[in-house]
């Protein structure tokens, strides 16, 4: 049994064939990716849905802001009413003392 002989020319041809086949597959993959990318780019975005969502977010934010303002105004009004009531009681008390009507 002898040592098998290798034909380096055949090995080079096979390597070249494998490389060329890989290049063809890579080229096909790149072309398909470009085609899909162009398809995606040419497809209009669902701008109506995006616009609806944007408007809803703005509406919700405005409503929340208005509620916060209303609550703050109500608290301020309540504090003013309490301050006015206390002021009136204090003034009446001081006037009674000044007038000598202290009970």
What oligomeric assembly is this protein in? single chain
Mean pLDDT: 75
Task: Give the helices and strands as they follow along the chain.
Answer: HH
Broad shape: rod-shaped
Total of helices? 2
Total number of β-strand segments? Answer: 0
Low-confidence runs (pLDDT<50, min 5 residues)? none
Kindly estimate the percentage of residues that lie in beta strands according to DSSP: under 5%
Largest sheet, strands/sense/barrel: none
Distance between the termini: 134 Å
Class inferred from helices and paired strands: mainly alpha
Overall number of structural domains: 2
**Fraction of residues in H or I helices:** over 70%
How do you describe this structure in short?
It comes from Fervidicoccus fontis. By secondary structure, the protein is mainly α.
Structure report:
It is a single chain. Helices cover 85% and strands 0% of the residues. The protein has 103 residues and is mainly α. It is rod-shaped. The chain starts with 7 loop residues before the first helix and ends with a helix. Keywords: Coiled coil. This is V-type ATP synthase subunit H.
